[in-house]
Structure formats: structure tokens, C-alpha cells
Design brief:
Distance between the termini of chain A: 26 Å
CATH architecture of chain B: Up-down Bundle
Largest sheet of chain B: none
Number of strands of chain A: 10
Oligomer: heterodimer
Strand order of the largest sheet of chain A: 8-1-10-9
Structural class of chain B: mainly alpha
Helix content of chain A: 10-25%
Shape of chain B: globular
Chain lengths: ~220, ~290
Amino acid sequence: MTRYAMAVDLRRCVGCQTCTAACKQKNATPPGVQWRRVLDVESGEFPDVRRSFMPVACMHCDEPPCEEVCPTTATRKRADGLVEIKYDLCIGCANCIMACPYEARSIVHEARFAYGDQPMANEQAMFDPERINVATKCTFCIERIDLAAETGQIPGVDHEVTPACVNSCISGAMVFGDLDDPDSNLSRLLKETKSFLQNEELGTGPGVYYLWDKA
Amino acid sequence: MMNGITSTNPISSRVQRNWDWRAAGNFVGGGSGSGLILWAALLSPLGYDVIPLLVTGLALVAGGLFCVWLEIGRPWRALNVLKHVSSSWMSREAWVAPLLFLSGLAAWLFTPLLLWPTALLAGAFLYSQSRILRADKGIPAWRHPRAGLLVVVTGLTEGAGLLVLLLPLFDQPQPLAWGALLILLALRAFAWRHYRDGLAEAKAPLASQKRLAAIDTGFFWGGHLLPGLLLGLALVVPVVATVAGAIVLLTGAWMKYILITRAAFTQGFTMQHLPVRGQPSANAAVRKRVA
């Protein structure tokens, strides 16, 4: 079996938002919609204060609450662990948005572009009317993962079949791979480090691991 | 801890902006409508003419569903809502609704005996609505188990309030309905406080609790004590019972509107462990310099 997942090394993340920008560029999300964002976390009390960064997006859960509540079956978890949305089935009821504990989903009700009504060339080229009035979210660049099945490349190793955010990360903080493959970069890294999951107590089984120290 | 409110401090918790008055309208119309149908069925053996009440209840449920239809992004695909009955309570609600209308219509047109299956379906509809909220894990104020109880009890109470409001229009006897409403008012008051205590125990987002605390005085006292007193006064001046019914209905709708649109803060994130970076000795030196 294959279970695609991601690790974010919080020790390396510098909060540059390059992954955010890469995601917006790759997926042409409209203004106000970020499938990926980086939270800026301040902690401690003066003078012992810390600033940390935490990239968040869809966690592609083992037990996705969005899938459970979706009344149309538009949201489905694939055998490889990716949670996808079939835009042609979605009715835009937003129940999945309420069910997601990771604020990963958005709905836009009209076409919006960065500079008013007229799209830029890249926005025009990537505009998809199917994505209006339906739920959208991070797909782990699903078409790249599907390409890997055709080309025999390895997601997380070969850039062509790796999510844009992972490719763009300037500090190598993001690692993508197959959790079920003990030799994948991801599995090895998880063995070497301590990690935590977001809102694990909700039983969602998130597929994004946050690394914070060596094992 | 602030004014008895306990809470965690999640990162980025914010109020949801996707469900507005239209979504709240479904919970208000569906709750009071199905509640009214249930009470109409229970009153029917006592010789009440309940068909007008049944039709009013069905109209309210339909109005609530129409509100949802106005809210969804792709209304012309609305029938897709029926596709996931195996796990989605929204699908289950959507399946119960047409059965409820068919059964109610048959009770109206053919035999009042069908009022009983209609009442069962109304109960199933109300229960489905409560489970829709509970399944929404992203909103701590909704996923709390006591939110489900609150939605059910509120629906039943609003239905009884509506009953008390409507009975004089059809020249029906009322004291029994007053008694039922009084008991339900006590139950709703308990469910409300029990729910709020539950949110505090679960450390739901502080903003959520504050929004609910802001309506506590108005809802708890204005929505329960005042109509309770009016129902007592109705033994002397019967007409004030209709005012009590209206207050119960409006305060229930107000509470649900706040619960759905204003108090629905998201789960947010937590940094369970700070990343271990740099050299401990260097950090200590910096701290010493700053101090």
C-alpha cells in the first residue's frame, strides 16, 4: 500500500512564505484563498520570547471528517491517502468547511483576480470555472502524484511529481513521501526525529507531521 | 480563567463565515416546524384539530430547507445531497425531508392516522439537524455532545411555543399546551446552562464562549423566566399566553442564529512543542544581555 504524507521540520522553517506563494502560483487560487499558509507563532514572555513558524494546509487525514459529512460524496479519500474533491459533484454546502479542524477549505462565489476584473495571463490560463461555488483545498498537487504512476517517478524525490510547496521550500523544511515505504525519505526522517500532529485528539489521523527535535 | 470561563488559546481561531442567516434559518425553521408537528401529533388523541398545525409545521420545515437552498453554491445540483446517506447527517436529513412531506400530505388529504409516522419523521428530521452540528469537528461549540441536546430541546420548545401561539387562532383549548410549554422551558433553560458549562469544561475557544455569554442574560431570563411568568398570568388573562409563545419562539431563533453565525469559532492550531533550535548556551547569553 501507499500512504502519501508530509513532514514539516519546524526547526528549519523560517516563515518566508515561499511555499504559500508557490502554491498560489501553481494552483492559481484567487485573492483571499490560500490552500497553504504559514502561521507566525509568538511564544514566551519578554525577554525570553520565541518566534516560530508553522505551515498549515489540508492534512489529508486518515479519517477525514470532511469526507464523513460531505452529503454528495464529492470529497473522497483515495487509496493512496490523498483527500480529493470532485468539483462536478460538490454543491458548495460548506459542511466540509465546518467539519475540517484545520481551516483548510474555502469556497469562492465569484471569479476574482489579483488586479480587478481582468485576469493576468497566468490567471487566465489556469482559471477553472468548475472551482467557483464549490469547496476547494490543497490537493498535494494531485495531478503530479498521478503523473508519477505513469512515469514511474517517485513523489517526494523527483521534482516533477512532488508538491509545489515542497519543491519551493528554501530551507528543505518540507518533506513529502510514502509513509508505508520504510525506506522513503519521509519514513526515515520520522524515525530520526520527534514529531507531533495537529488536533490529534479529534481522531482525524492527520497526514502532516510537525518535526520539532531529534529523536 | 475569566468570569468563570475557561479556555485554551488556539492559534488562528476565527469565526466561520460560510454559514449565515440562511443556514441558521434551516435550524430555526426545521427545529420549530418539526417540534410543532410532534406536539400536534401528541395533542391529536385529545380531540384537537391538528391538521392546520401540521401544515404550518411542514411549511416551516420547507422554509428552512429553502433557506439552505439559497445558501449552497450550486443550487441546481442540490439533489446530489442525497448521495452520502451512509455517513453524512446532511444526506440523512435530506432523505427524511421528502418522506416527512409525503407523509404529512397524506395525513392531511387522506387519514389523520398518518400523523403518527409524520411525527416520527419530524423527530428524525430534528435529530438529524442536531447531528449535523455535532459532526462538524472544526467548530468546538458545535461538536460538543451537549450542542446536540440543546438543538433537540430547543426545537421541541420552539414547537411548543408556536403551538401556544397558534392554538387561539383555531379556537382550540390551551391549558394543556401551556403546561407542556412550561416544562419544556425548564428543560431548555437546563440544556442551555448545561451546554455552556460543557463548553467551559471542554475549554472551547474563549471567543465562542464570550459570544454565548453575551446573550445569556437575555436568553436565559428573557427567554425562560419571562414567558414562564406570562404563562402563569395566562390563567387569569389567557391572551398573554400567545405573547409567551411568541417570546419562546423568537428567543430560540435568536439563540440559534448566534450559535450558527456568531459563536462558531474554528478549532485553531496549537504549537505543542517549540522547535529546538540553536545552542542553549548562546540563548542563555542573549537572555542575560537583554535582561
